[in-house]
Write a structure and sequence with these properties.
62 residues
């Protein structure tokens, strides 16, 4: 079993992006609060599907 490292994870602090990822059928591993900044983030495992959804978001909103 491969050890999961920070490079395997995507921390999403953008609510609109996180909502888009959810609409694309992706579920975060967790939703939490950064203890230092107090900002909410959604944590995703990096996958091809995640990258495709992020690319789609960039085409739509940027």
């Amino acid at each position: 079993m491969k050890e999961i490292t920070n490079s395997d994870l995507f921390y999403c602090y953008n609510k609109r992006l996180s909502d888009h990822l959810f609409e694309c059928g992706l579920t975060p591993l967790t939703i939490a609060i950064n203890p230092k900044s107090k900002n909410i983030f959604s944590l995703y495992q990096k996958t091809n599907e995640l990258q495709q959804a992020i690319d789609k978001y960039k085409r739509i909103y940027k």
